Structure formats: C-alpha cells, structure tokens
Amino acid sequence: DTVLSIENVTKVYGNGPAITEALKDVTLKVERGEWIAITGPSGHGKSTLLQLMGGLDHPTTGSVYLDNLDITCLSQSDLTSLRRYKIGFVFQFFNLLPHLSALENVQMALWLGGLSKNLISRGMDLLDQVGLANKAGNLPNALSGGQQQKVAIARALANNPEILLMDEPTGNLDSVSEADFLDLLQRLHSAGKTIVVVTHNQVVAGRAGRLVRVKDGKIEREEGHG
Ligand code: ADP
Ligand code: ADP
What does the record list as GO biological process (predicted)? Predict the structure, then answer.
C-alpha cells in the first residue's frame, strides 16, 4: 500500500546558464507505515526530494502522488490544507517561533489546523508525548537543541498527520538527545506513522527500515525493505 510516491521527477532550479538540475528522473515509492532514511553527500538533492514529497515545491517534470492523488495539479490553497493534515515537517533548524513558548508554538499549529478548543490541554498532550511537558512555558532560546527538536516534533504531530518528513533533524544534537530522538521515532513508527528522514547521521540512518542513497540528483542505491 503506497502512501506517497514520486514518479519520474526532475527538478531544475534557476534559468538560463545558471540552472541546477537538482533531481534527475527520480522515482521513489513510500509504503504506508514505512521508515525510510535518505542519505548522501551535501548538495546532491536530498532536501529537494523531501520538499517535493511534502508538496512544499513543484517538480519541473514528473508527478507526486499522495494517497494516489496527483498533488502536482493542486492549487496552492488545496496543497496547503492537504499538507496540514497529511504531513508533518521537522526542519533542520526546527523553525520555532522565537517569541512564543514551547506550548504556544504547538498551540499555533493546532489553531492553524482549525482547532480552537482545548488548545492548552491538547498542546500539553502533544508536549507530553515527546517528553517535554515540564518545559511548556520556555521560549525556544531557553531550550537545548534536543528540547527544541521535541517541540518541533510535537508541532509536526499537531494535526495527527500520517506522514512525518524530517530534514537533518539531528544536526545539532548530542548523543543523549540523539538516543532520545531515536526512541521517539521508534514509538511513532510503532504507532503507525510513516517516517522519511534525511540524515547524515549513521546511527539514525541505521535504524530505518530502508536506506535510500541520493547522489548527483539520482537514487544511487537502496538497501533493506520493511
Ligand atoms: P542536499 O539536501 O542533498 O544538500 P539540496 O536538495 O538542498 O541538496 O540541493 C541540491 C542542489 O540544488 C544543490 O546544488 C543546491 O545548491 C541546489 N538548490 C537547492 N535549492 C535551490 C533553490 N531554491 N534555488 C537554487 N538552487 C537550489
Ligand atoms: P542541506 O543542509 O539539507 O544540504 P541546504 O542547507 O543546502 O540543505 O539548503 C537548505 C535549503 O535552502 C534547501 O532546502 C533549499 O531549498 C535552499 N537552497 C539550497 N541551496 C540553495 C541555493 N543554491 N540557492 C537557493 N536556495 C538554496
């Protein structure tokens, strides 16, 4: 059962002599409940691939299917709402709103998703799920990297998306936070979430069920299934 599928996708940035062909005829099918790690050298197309999978950008050619719906022909507003309920993103630098507390960052996502009731208790539930309820009132800059990451994950989970897409989520974590993070991913995976994580981290990559290596805008090789 394929939940997300990239078919014969190319992505070209820029125009004229300054173009970059970031993806070259890439096909990747993600099964429901699968945990995939995407690895490969810097600048070779991993972030681009993740952004196209999440409908954050359009491919130059090819199609992206989410639950068998070709999302490349959707309007921006349809795409935005689809993203909101189907997909949670965790970005490399977490992109938390700096003037809002951990709880408020999560509440904001709930509110954007159309929920207006019980924002505090729902927000606290989400922070509790990631083990951060005790820091609910802290601003992001009063949290460690690992704690900020947890807020970002709680926020990504706000509208109960089926799919979690993460771009270098362990870039700035120490090994303790990393172990914590892996436990959390394991729990989310066991709870049925589909997880795609772009990572340079061998330990994180090693825990995924499938490893996809991207090189020079192409899928160079894949290892493992399940
Ligand atoms: P990776 O995630 O593997 O580091 P990226 O997908 O970020 O690779 O980038 C792939 C290539 O596309 C790089 O050469 C990068 O400079 C280029 N690129 C990525 N995003 C843009 C953009 N918005 N505009 C122009 N070039 C881009
Ligand atoms: P990564 O750490 O995954 O390699 P980068 O730091 O290269 O990602 O890029 C982060 C984001 O910045 C990319 O997802 C892309 O959208 C954008 N970007 C990357 N390279 C360029 C570029 N040459 N020009 C414009 N935007 C870029």
Answer: response to antibiotic
